[in-house]
Amino acid sequence: MHRAFDSDDIVYSILEHLRFPLTDLRNVAMTCTRLAGPALNVLWSEQSSLLPLIMCLPQGALGIADETITPSEWERIITNASRVRRFIEPANHGELHPEPIVSGLVLWRLFERFPPATLFPNLCSFDSQALREYSSDISLVGGFMSPALEVLLLDVSAQSPTHEVEEFFRTLPERARGLRELSISMGDGDMAFAVLPSFGNLPKLIALTIRKVNVSMTRQVITNIQQARYLNTIELTLHGTAYDHDGGVTALELGSLERLSLFGDILPQCTHFIRQITTRRLSHVTILYHQPASPIEIAVLMESLSTSCQTYGSLKEIEVKDDSDGRNTELVIPLSSEVFRPLLKFTGLLSVIFQGIGNYNLDNRFINDIPDAWPGIQELKFASFRLAGCAVTFDCDGVTRIKAEDGREMLWPAQTALRLLHVGHSQVSEVARMPYILAKVFPDLGMIYWCSHAGSYQIRNASGPLMEEVREQLHELQNPLSDMEWEEGDDDDSEDSEDMDD
Q: Euclidean distance between the first and final Cα of the chain, in Å?
């Protein structure tokens, strides 16, 4: 055997590339003694069910007493369990490949003899969904808690007895004090939030996800979150319309927060949360909602963001997406430049993405302010999924010029950071000098894309052919090639440009 296999680091690096299909790892494990142990470690390291471990028991042992299982058979169970590092959510293949149901009696006997925290000494990540039909058994889930656990994904259903949930969260900091990432699914969201843990007693917690937060409990949730001193990532799924107040309360500071993701049925749910917090280190904001918002609701969100984020240079990325059915092309949500102007104060922005939230009408003044406001911008996207709302509108004769206070005109500063431009459903005039403007303003622009369809695939973008000419001319201006070389790559690029409709 090559001496390179004397290094465990090299062996495990190779085996990580053989994880799928699992038969490859099994074959490697049977190749030689040197590779058997590492291959089995990788094979067992990630499981989505307890079934593979139970199947290590001899045939027929699932329904009989422990006395029939020999010490060597128990040893095989213990050895394989010690290799498990992560229990993950099962893949959704149940209907095509149904798995046998593990008997509750078998689990009880197994964990009575070997408590989960003892049986899985190297477990660092646990998703309660791996327990399948027992995922909401809080007492069973509690047995997997240990000081070595770093990631916990917990499903708290409405069927879970409240007193058991309260006891679980009360003792969680004691049993899993090393927890760094916590995800809690609160079922239908009506679970009393008094059962949430004291995050201040989880000193290493840096990421928190809570699904189905009732907006009537927003203030209490923020108060609990405040206790986690090093929490930098929060992801919340919101629901309900019975807000706990209508404003006029002091915002609570989340001093360590860097990444915030909010998902709601309607946009005001997300805005309600943002208006109640202040941040100094926030760098990434993602907001997604499922019903169209009005121009006023969108404007309130932008104002709330500008107030909540108090360090203007810290914010790097903003993404807001309307995830409703964009095929309603008749719905018009007019959004002028003034709606987005509060964001110009965030001078460190690298990525600004708005997808399907309305019909944009960005004037020259706003376009001309972007270079000074966002000098490092790398991705700028105002995408509309409706033809009625063209993406970005501007006067091609004025877009490259800025008028100074003393009346002098100067060229718009070159944006060397921008590599890709998506113009959505923007309408292009035949007389527009778009390729030359783009090549001057964005000298490093690698590719331009547009939406070939709107909503239904039966509605084509009328400017598609003109955009194709713009793309070709832009490529020639920035990448001088012979006609033969350009024609060779033309067909493939054309297909790619029309496929990028997002």
A: 51
- pLDDT of 107-119, one tens digit each? 888 888 899 999 9
Alpha-carbon distances of 15 from 4, 61, 79, 182, 309, rounded to whole Å: 14, 33, 19, 29, 45
Tell me if the pTM is above 0.85: no
Question: Residue 326, by phi and psi: left (phi above 0), alpha (psi -120 to 50) or beta?
Answer: alpha
Summarised one tens digit per residue, pLDDT across range 383-442 is: 776 554 444 433 333 334 433 334 444 445 555 566 777 776 666 666 567 777 677 767
Amino acid residing at 472:
E
Query: Which residue pairs, CB below 8 angstroms and at least 24 apart, start in 370-375?
Result: 370/344, 371/402, 371/412, 371/413, 371/415, 372/413, 373/344, 373/345, 373/346, 373/347, 373/349, 374/344, 374/346, 374/347, 374/349, 374/350, 375/347, 375/413
* Contact by Cβ (8 Å): 215, 269: yes
**Residues 437, 413: contact at Cβ < 8 Å?**
no
Total Cβ atoms within 10 A of residue 286: 17
Mind spelling out the 3-state secondary structure of 394-456?
CCCCCCCEEECCCCCEEECCCCCCCCEEECCCCCCCCCCCHHHHHHHHCCCCCEEECCCEECE
Give the CA dihedral 433, 437, 439, 442, nearest 10 degrees. -150
What is the token pair recorded at 209?
Answer: 């996800």
Number of CB atoms found within 10 A of residue 50's CB:
21
Taking the C-alpha atoms of residue 366 and residue 392, their distance in angstroms, rounded to an integer, is 11
Q: Give the integer Cα–Cα distance in Å for 292 and 182.
A: 31
Whose CA is closest to 383, among 463, 294, 501, 465? 501
| CA 415 to chain CA mean position, Å | 28
Of 196, 178, 200, 290, residue with least CA distance to 237: 290
